């Protein structure tokens, strides 16, 4: 990372944290994570300041988009867990705001992680990239350096196998 970029980022850190805090609805831990991920994007060269706007405007845009990506990733994961839970127990009430339901979803997320570990490596990798990292199938194919057709096959087979594992009462298949 260029020293001038590092200096600019450092000078904006306090304001950037305030913006990240706003983007995360006041959740300090999430704001720290978002800001760290935004810094990592800059350090890895995944985002670059091109000078089309003021530096602060660009940097706040990076933080905002990082927060939106994280929100989308979390929603996707919650939807996945709730969907698999509904498929496994179709008669169960789907009340999200109920605290006991939130605990149940946490338990189901742990079950989901356990089931993911039982998948073949490529299927687990594909599902992880799509559900946990929020990548599209095209992006997952690029990361894995395989064709889109292969990724689609791993994705479909992985979802089917995961559904079967989660339907199993013991998850010991």
Percentage of residues in DSSP E strands: under 5%
Number of domains: 2
Shape descriptor reads flat
- Kindly state the number of beta strands: 0
Report the top-level CATH class of the largest domain: Mainly Alpha
Question: Helix segment count?
Answer: 8
Structural class label: mainly alpha
In the CATH hierarchy, the third-tier topology of the largest domain is known as Arc Repressor Mutant, subunit A
Specify the CATH homologous superfamily of the largest domain. Winged helix-like DNA-binding domain superfamily/Winged helix DNA-binding domain
Distance between the termini: 48 Å
| Average of the residue pLDDT scores | 82
Gyration radius over CA: 19 Å
Summarize the structure.
This protein is mainly alpha-helical and 173 residues long. It folds into 2 domains: 1-72, Rna Polymerase Sigma Factor, Chain: A (Orthogonal Bundle); 95-173, Orthogonal Bundle (Arc Repressor Mutant, subunit A). 75% of the residues lie in helices and 0% in strands.
Structure description:
By secondary structure, the protein is mostly helical. The chain has two domains: 1-72, Rna Polymerase Sigma Factor, Chain: A; 95-173, Winged helix-like DNA-binding domain superfamily/Winged helix DNA-binding domain (Arc Repressor Mutant, subunit A). The protein has eight helices and no strands. It has helices at 3-11, 13-23, 28-43, 55-88, 99-117, 121-132, 137-144, 148-167. Helix 3 packs across helix 4 (55-88), helix 6 (121-132) packs across helix 7 and helix 7 packs across helix 8. The radius of gyration is 19 Å and the shape is flat. The model has no long low-confidence stretch (mean pLDDT 82).
